Amino acid sequence: MIDLEPTQIAPAEPKKSRWPTLLTILVLALSIAGIAYLVMTESPEESPDAVATEEPETGTTIPADLENPALFPGVEPVADAAEVILPSVVQISTLGGVGSGVIYDPDGLILTAAHVVEGHDSVTVRFQDGEEVTGTVIGGNAEADVAVVEVDRTGLPAAELALGDSPRVGQMAIAVGSPWGLDSTVTAGIISAINQPLCDAVTCQSMLQTDAAINPGNSGGALVDRLGRVVGINVSIFSLSGANDGVGFAVPVDTAFDIADRLVKGESLAAAYLGVTGDNVESGQAGALITEVEPGTGADEAGVEVGDLVIALEDVEIQGIQDLASQVRRYRPGTIVELLVVRDGSEIAFQVTLGERPDNP
Predict the structure, then answer these.
(1) For this structure, is 145 an active site residue?
(2) Is the fold of 1-41+72-269 the same as that of 272-356?
(3) How does the average pLDDT of the chain come out, rounded?
(4) pTM for the complete prediction?
(5) Given the residues 17, 115, 258, 323, the one annotated as active site
(6) Cβ(113)–Cβ(223) under 8 Å?
C-alpha cells in the first residue's frame, strides 16, 4: 500500500498530451491504505410502463400505489440494481487497509484491484452477511490494476458480468464497495466517458470514467448498470482533495475478466505491442501521428509508415497517441486488429498482428 499523501505525477509521454497539465497532477488509488498514481456497460433497457391513474382535476398521470414498488419496475432503478449486486460485493482487508471485491464465480473467485492486495498472499474477506473468511491471493497485474482472490466456498452469489456490451456515455452507473471501510455502500451517477486513456510513465490504460461517488476503500468494488450487471472494477479517482471530486475510473469488465481468466489459468500476462512511436497533431484532423515504426513489428509488417495518421483501431476512434497506446493495451499478443490511417489524404485500413511488448517479464 502507498502512503495517504497525494502523489504528483508527470504527464505520460508523448510530450504533447491532450490532457491539461492540471488534470494530470494526481490520481488517487482507491484504497484506505493509499493514494497512488495507478493506471488504471449496459445499453439501458427501457423500463416497462408504470401502472398509473389519471387525476381528473389536473389530467396529471400519477402512480396508482407508491406503497407497492413491485407494481412499478424501473421506478427505483438504483435500488433495484443495488438489490441485485450487493450480495456479490465483499470487503477485503489486509494489514495495510481496506478495499472491496466482486464475486464473479460461485466457486470462490473474487475480482479486486491489484493495489488492494499488493504484497499479500492472504487477505480477510467479509461477505455482505457479515461472515469473514480467509482468502488466498491468486495473483495480480499491477499495470492493469486487476487481481484475483480465492476463498474456500462454493455456491456463492456471483455477479453477472456485462461482457461484450458497449457502454454508453450518460448511462446510469452505480458504485458499490467499502469507502472508508463502510461496507455495502451504494452511490450512483453516470458513465462520464468511455475509452478514457489514463497514463503513467510506463503505459496507458483504457478506462471507464464515472461521476458516481467513489472514495478510498471502493477500490476493487463493482461499477454496475441499472440491471445490476458489472461493467467495471473501480480502481482510482482524480482528486485535488484526497476525496471524491466526481472523477472516478474503473477498469472495463472485459479487460478485468480477461486478466482474471489468465491469472486463474496461469497464463502469460504479456501486453500487446504495435511497434510504433507517435505524437499528437497540433492542428487539423485528430489522430496519432506515427513518427517511428520499429522494424520487424506487426505495424512494420502490415505496411504502416512514418507520417501515417492513425484515426481508428478496430471500432474505436483515436484522438491522440495516448488513445492508441491504451487501446493496444486491451488486446493479447497475437491478436489481429484493424488499424485505420490517413496517408496523403486517403484512408487506408491495415490488418495488424500485435506482437508482445519487449519489456514484458
Answers:
(1) yes
(2) no
(3) 84
(4) 0.79
(5) 115
(6) no
